Amino acid sequence: MARRQPAAPRGGAETRRRIAVEAARLIAEGGLRDYHEAKCKAARRLGVPDAAALPRNLEIEEALREHQRLFQADAQPRQLRRLREAAVEAMRFLARFEPRLVGPVLEGTADEHSGVRLHLFADDIREVLVFLDGHGIPYDEETRLLALDAAREIEVPALLLAADGIAVELMVFGHDGLHHAPLDRVTRKPMRRAGRAAVEELIAAA
Q: Is 6 within the bounds of a domain?
């Protein structure tokens, strides 16, 4: 009689999948925005100590889209539309700075915890500050560290404000930045950007 072969051990792919699903739940339901933080927290909850088992950011995003399809099929699309409409209004208001929409609102994974993220382009950030001050719009100033490629990072000024209860983040680049997008944190490829007309087309097609 042939000897029965032992069952293959449960592989790393299944562990990564479980962590990705839990991380997606934490993002969708708990409001976590940082993918690395979400997957580390998910791994701890699942008792997985091996950092090598952590899923890639792309796996997290795929699990997030699946979670939204299964559990937020009504609410998430409504909120996404609201955020895209708010983005169009902000882009119309900021038209002189050639705004481009980026991030979850563009990619379609935004939810009730998300805000609108725009890239603006000006010779000097003071142009944007004077414009906002002239319209009596309060804002906070921060910086964001963005990767240009595998070896280079830049600090980009970010202005945080609110419009109709929606958080809006304005990252201000020089005009040369219009044609050189920083890397996306998920794909590690140049970040996808969209002008106002493209966002209006997304709204109309939904």
A: no
Could you say which DSSP state residue 47 is in?
Answer: T
Domain boundary among 71, 89, 119: 71
Residues 123 and 31 in one domain: no
State how far the alpha carbon of 120 is from the alpha carbons of 74, 78, 96, 198, in Å.
32, 26, 9, 16
The residues that bridge with 161 in the sheet, in sequence order, are 168
**Helix, strand, coil distribution of the chain in percent, nearest 5:** 50, 20, 35
Summarize pLDDT for 124-143 with one digit per residue, the tens. 999 999 999 999 999 999 99
Inter-residue contact 109 to 68 (CB < 8 Å): yes
CA–CA separation, 161 and 124 (whole Å): 19
Tell me, what amino acid is at 108?
G
Task: State the pTM of this model.
Answer: 0.86
Contacts (Cβ under 8 Å, ≥6 apart) of 111: 28, 68, 72, 75, 76, 79, 80, 104
Number of domains present in the structure of the chain: 2
Contact 128, 122 (CB under 8 A): yes
Assigned domain for 116 exists:
yes
